[in-house]
Amino acid sequence: DTAVSQTPKYLVTQMGNDKSIKCEQNLGHDTMYWYKQDSKKFLKIMFSYNNKELIINETVPNRFSPKSPDKAHLNLHINSLELGDSAVYFCASSYLAGGDTQYFGPGTRLTVL
Amino acid sequence: KQEVTQIPAALSVPEGENLVLNCSFTDSAIYNLQWFRQDPGKGLTSLLLIQSSQREQTSGRLNASLDKSSGRSTLYIAASQPGDSATYLCAVAHSNSGYALNFGKGTSLLVTP
Lengths: 113, 113
Fold this sequence. Notes:
Chain A is mainly beta. Chain A is 0% helix and 56% strand.
């Protein structure tokens, strides 16, 4: 009965590879987010989707491409991985209207070698 | 651009003490403010959400206050326990940015037995 789930939990890969992280929420929320937590533990918004439509894109390199096949899923595909992409990526979801509580997934720790 | 600051960056207290964590933000036109807890290697757990029209919220031993005009929030933890040891994050949302959260860098709390 996990509310927001992410796969994989850990991802270790070589520079230049392409990888994807998947996120699913079973809360019936209409909005999903991707956040990045860097090595200094600072969390920053990357993307937000509302009902499968992109509503926030925070000047993230276009090597990062989110995809939302339906409102319960938001995947993150990263092309040509760089060392600086190493971080923990968190997915979150909420109801957009009223700026409701955001619920976070457990995170995916990406390490680029 | 919204900046969120949390003071102190780290705090160590003996069990049983009451404590206050501080959060300040530069743009007072927030929609809501949320306090989270993050345990090492884990995701974020929402503790309290305060809408901009509210002054405080309480949950168990936790009380969060909001003074929007001065750009400040405090999280009060009563009768601290070792299990409260974690990083506490403050985040604010704006309606004109899809309610994405702007996070502070957190306060790392250690409660010693």
